[in-house]
Amino acid sequence: MKKSDELETKFGKHALDGSKWVLADTDQEPEVEKSAQKAAIEDAISTILASVGENPEREGLQSTPHRVAKMYDEILGGYKQDPVTIVNGALFDVEYDEMIVVKDIEFFSMCEHHMLPFYGRAHVAYIPSDKIIGLSKIPRIVEMYARRLQVQERMTRQIADLIDEVLRPQGVAVVVEGAHMCSMMRGVKKEHPRMVTSAMIGSFKENAMTRNEFMQHLRQSGGSTF
Asked: 44, 223, 41, 53: which is closest to 121 by C-alpha?
């Protein structure tokens, strides 16, 4: 049985939410349901506009509820994505047991506390056991979890856990650097702080030399703050 078939057998069409696997229906939504969801968002945005003292009917705002509903469908599209579909069988038998690093993966997400953006870069490494994953799949996994209402800590863990589930490698490491608009636009109002989170599994957690090798890769040219 292929690894992708094993994953689908094990998880079905599931997406990791926090620490639990929950059903994520990735079949095409009925048009009636999609229209109802869009209408509900548009009504909510119209209510917000009126509640903050604006006139939802003035020229500049008449199409705003429609635009926001369309935007949410895009920037929160990770809820509708399925890990099995993303991996799509791109697992390959290769005799390679050294570190693989994919760094400087740009992401944009939405803070679940204030629904303001946070953005930055993710750096992912793993040491294969018997399989490698197609290069484009790691940025796609990052994108899937970023395009949800998130906290950076959980997103970091989700990326690491899914790669570990898919590949069963010797180890996985994920470091995420993020700038949060919720602390830049409001509250403390500081422009430059960056939040750094990490998740280490297997050899990266157990072996300081392996962890240091990964961090050294991040210090090399490429824009990381390390």
From this structure: 223
Catalytically active residues are 111-114, 152, 180, 182
Q: Are 217 and 126 spatial neighbours (Cβ–Cβ below 8 Å)?
A: no
* Total length of the chain: 226
Bridge partners (DSSP) of residue 132 are: 92
Enumerate domains of the chain plus CATH numbers.
31-78 (1.10.286.10), 90-219 (3.30.1130.10)
Please tell me what DSSP assigns to residue 29. Answer: P
Cα gap 129→131, rounded to integer Å: 6
Q: Is the pTM of this model over 0.90?
A: no
pLDDT tens figures, 96-149: 999 999 999 999 999 999 999 999 999 999 999 999 999 999 999 999 999 999
Between strands 195-202 and 171-180, the pairing is antiparallel
